[in-house]
Write a structure and sequence with these properties.
Elements: H1 6-12, H2 23-33, E1 41-48, E2 60-64, E3 75-78, H3 81-89, E4 94-95, H4 98-105, E5 113-116, H5 121-125, H6 128-131, H7 151-160, E6 162-166, E7 172-179, H8 184-200, E8 211-218, E9 224-226, H9 228-232
Parallel strand pairs: 3-4, 3-5
Antiparallel strand pairs: 1-7, 1-8, 2-6, 8-9
């Protein structure tokens, strides 16, 4: 039985597996080889030369994508009183009252990002084992635990295309940069913004080659390898 379906194999035939493409060539191929019957997400995957087992070699940050993600980002805010009302006025989709917390505990995850005020972290902590593995746990280092008066700014940034990323256990990053329907120039500029932040997030203790492998792909589509040095040299404009 074939590992992949016919549509995938036909798309993969358009890619030279032995070639490292320029970022622009790779993004053009991503659009060409996407065969999903919906507006697929374009993702960048990176293998980094760090050891995630060491606390001083963690790579975690946020990036503002200049052209957003092309989707409605659903934001859940952990706040009470005036802070909750300010969050609602700023466009928060959900305020985490007891009912929402219970729904999360029961397996509800119709959200894309979370924000919390510091006084709510006791309540949030009870959901850590549920939110953490899904990358949805508010965290001061990611700028998602903020004072009440900062909630509107963070909510607006998340909805406009602010994306959090962190390495997994195998030292890989997986970051969405937009939709297949985006013009290739917009995907390029989003990817350039990501590469810039990843470079600046290099841990001081990291030795040797930092960005070892870069691949771009679409939802369900084949991966396209990018020349790492060219990816790191992206300047934000095609």
């Amino acid at each position: 039985m074939p590992k992949h379906g016919k549509k995938y194999r036909l798309a993969a035939e358009k890619i030279d597996r032995n070639k490292l493409y320029s970022p622009l060539e790779a993004l053009e191929l991503v659009k060409e080889t996407s065969y999903a019957n919906f507006d697929a997400t374009v993702e960048v995957h990176m293998r980094l030369g760090v050891d995630p087992r060491h606390a001083d070699q963690q790579v975690r940050d946020t990036v503002m994508l200049p052209h957003g993600l092309g989707k409605n980002v659903r934001v859940l805010v952990f706040a009470e009183g005036d802070a909750a009302r300010a969050a609602e006025q700023a466009g928060a989709d959900f305020i985490a009252d007891d009912e929402i917390v219970k729904r999360i505990q029961d397996g509800w995850f119709e959200l894309d990002a979370t924000v919390a005020t510091p006084d709510m972290m006791g309540k949030v902590g009870r959901l850590g084992k549920i939110l953490g593995p899904r990358g949805l746990m508010p965290n001061p280092k990611a700028g998602t635990v903020v004072p009440a008066d900062d909630l509107p700014r963070v909510i607006n940034e998340l909805k406009a295309g602010r994306v959090e990323f962190r390495i997994d256990r195998t030292a890989n990053l997986h970051v969405p940069i937009g939709k297949v329907s985006f013009e290739v120039e917009k995907l390029y500029e989003n990817m350039a913004a990501l590469m810039d932040v990843v470079k600046r997030a290099r841990p001081a203790s990291s030795k040797g080659t930092y960005i070892r492998r870069v691949t771009v792909t679409s939802t369900m589509g084949p991966g396209i390898r990018v020349e790492p040095n060219l990816a790191q040299a992206m300047d934000g404009a095609v």
